[in-house]
Amino acid sequence: MGVQEVKIAANQKELNRFTRFLLKDIQAMEYMLENDWFEQAPIRIGAEQEVCLVDEHGKPAPKSMEILAALNHPSFTTELSRFNIEANLSPVEFTGDCFSRVQKELDDLMDLIHKTAHDLEARVILTGILPTIRKFDLDIENLTPIDRYYALLQAIERLRGKAAYELKIEGLDELNLKHDSALIEACNTSFQVHLQVTPQDFVSKYNIAQAISAPVLGVSSNSPMLFGKRLWNETRIALFQQSVDTRITNEHLRYTSPRVTFGNGWVKNSILDLYKEDIVRFKVLLTTDVKEDVLDSVKNNKTPQLQALSIHNSTVYRWNRPCYGISPNGKPHLRIENRILPSGPTTLDEVANSAFWVGLMNGFEEAYPDVTKVLEFDDVKANFIKTARTGLGSKHHWVHGKTVNDIELIQKELLPIARIGLEKAKVDEKDINKYLEIIEDRTETGMNGSRWILKSYSKLLKESTKEEATTAIVAGMAYNQKTKKPVHEWKLASIQDIADWHPTSLLVEEFMTTDIFTVSKDEIPEFSADMMDWRRIRYLPIENEQGELIGLITSRQLLRHFSTMYKNEKLDYSTIKDLMIKDPLTIAPEATIIEAIDVMNTQKIGCLPVVNNKKLVGIITESNFLSITSSLLKRLAAKKKKAIRKEEEAKQENNTEPEKDS
C-alpha cells in the first residue's frame, strides 16, 4: 500500500535530499543482503483485491468514500478513483489449505462490501475493465480526494507537460482518443498476488515469473473492452502503459522505457538489479519527509523502513514488481508481486489463477533449473504482448526454440509443473485439485472472462443497442458472481438480465452514433447526395479543417436543391456552403436522452450533432430514438410476461394447497 504522506518536491534542493535517502536505502539493502538479514521461513502468500462500484444501471458509482466510511474496516482502502475500492487480504503461509483460507477471507470481505454497497444504492463488480465505463466518468471530480492521488497526477503532468493523454489501442475495433488526465488509469482493476521469496532464490524466481507471464495472462484474461470497443483480449496491459506514460516524443531513435514495463532483460545478480535500474531509468515522481537514517538503523541492528525506496518503487509499474517488506516478527523479507492478473470474473477464478501462478513459481525449477538458458528474454516479452493482444490460443515461443499453442502448453506441461510446485509446498490435495481443475476446464472449454464478455457482446448486438449490450454484460456479471461458479460454467449474458432497464437518466454519449460521415463546405452537392444514398443516412455534418462543426446538410435540402435545378433546366454550381444550415443546434455528450428528445420535439428537427469543445464527436437522430423505443417496448413486454408467469405460478401454488379440516 506504500507510504501515505507523499508530495511533489518543491525545488531541486528537496529533490536532491530525497535522492540521497534513496541511495542510502540501496546501501542499507546491500548490507542486509550481504549479512543475511532476510527472513527465510515461513514462505507466505498474500493478495490485493480491487473492485468496481456501479449504480442500478451498471454504470460507475463514485461512492467509495461513503462506502469506506460505512465499512469502517481495516482491510478496505481507497483507490485512485471514487468508483473503485481495494481490499487487502491477510498473508497466509504457503502450505496446507492456504488457498481455501485465502478464498474464505476474500468471500467474507466481498460479502461485507456487497451488503454495505447495497445499503448505499451501489453494487460491487469484479472485472478487469468495467464494460460500461464512459469517458466522462474519468473527470477529475471522480479522483479520490486524498492528497497523494492529487500529487501523483500532478507529478506525472509535470514530467510529460500539458499534452493530452492519447490512447491508441487497436483490436477488433479501434480506440483513438485524448483525455486530459492520468485518471484514465482508473479503468483498470486487478487481483494482485504476492509471493514471499528468499534472497538466494529471488533471481531464479523473478526470471520464472517473467517466463510464465504470457500463459498465466492468457488463461486468466478478463478485460477485452473499453468505452464500448473490443480491443486487446487483456486491454489493461495497453491501457495502463499509455495512461501513465511520462515519456515525450523524440525526433531521434533514442530508447526510453515506459514506467509501466515488462522489463528489458533477465535479472542476473539480486533484487538490487531491478531497484538500481529503476532509479537510473525513471525520474523521481514523489517524495516524502524521511525521518529515519537507515544506515544508523542497520548499524544498530534495527530493520529499516526504506521509505524512499518504497515510494520510488510504487511509481514504477513492473508487471512483476519486486517488493521489500517487514514481517510481524520484525525481520525484513522480499516478495514478488504479480500485477498481471485482472480482477474477476469470480473469487473462485481469482484464487484458481493464484494457485496456478504460485504452483508454477514453486515447481518450474524442477523442470528447468535455469530458465535463462532455455528461453530468450525477447521471446518471453514478445509472448506477453502477443497474448495480451490475442488471448487464449496464442502461439508462444517456448524452450529450446519450440513454438507451441498456449492451450497445449498449459494442459501438457504447465499444469503438471504447477501441481508439482503445490505438492512440494505440501498444499492440501483437495485445494490442488479444486483450483487446478478450474484452469484445466478453462483451457478445455476455451472460456475465460474475456471470451465470455466478447461472446456475450456479439450475441447481444444482434438484438439490442451497444449501450444495452454492455449493461446486460455487467448485469450478467453481477448475477453470475453471486452464484460463485467459475466463468467457464456461466451462461452468456442475456437481454433478459436487464428487464428493468430504462434510459431516463442515461446520457447522449451512450446512445449517439460515433461512426459519422462528414463533408467540407466546399464539396459539391452531388457528392453529399451520393454519400447519403450509399450510406443510407439523412444528415451530414459539415466540418472545417480543425474538425469543428460549422454546418449541417439534410436530405430534404438536397432534394429541394435538385428539384429546383430540374425545374429551371440549368446546371447549378453551388457548393455545400451555399446550402448548409449554418450554426445548427447541437447538444453536449453529457446531456440526458430526455433533454435531447425535448430539444428535437420543440425545434421540430430530426437530428442533433453532438459537440464537445467545438469538436464534432457524434450525432443523434430519430433512428437512435427508435432503437431506444424498441428496446423499451421489449423490456415492458418482458416485464409483463414475467409478471403473468409469477401470477400463474402463485395460482398453481394456491390450487395445490391441501384443504384444511373443517
Keywords:
three-stranded antiparallel sheet, GCS2, alpha+beta, Gln_synth/guanido_kin_cat_dom, 3 domains, 662 residues, Creatine Kinase, Chain A, domain 2, CBS-domain, CBS domain, eight-stranded antiparallel sheet
Describe the protein:
With 662 residues, the protein is an alpha+beta fold. The chain folds into three domains: 89 residues, no CATH class; 332 residues, Creatine Kinase, Chain A, domain 2 (2-Layer Sandwich); 117 residues, CBS-domain (Roll), CATH 3.10.580. 46% of the residues lie in helices and 15% in strands. It contains 22 helices and 21 strands. The strands form seven sheets. Strands 1, 2, 3, 4, 5, 8, 13 and 14 form an eight-stranded antiparallel β-sheet that branches. β17 and β18 form a beta hairpin. α5 crosses α11. The longest helix is centred in the last third of the chain and has 35 residues. The protein is globular, with a radius of gyration of 28 Å. The model has no long low-confidence stretch (mean pLDDT 91). Keywords: CBS domain. GO terms for molecular function: ligase activity, forming carbon-nitrogen bonds. Pfam families: CBS, GCS2.
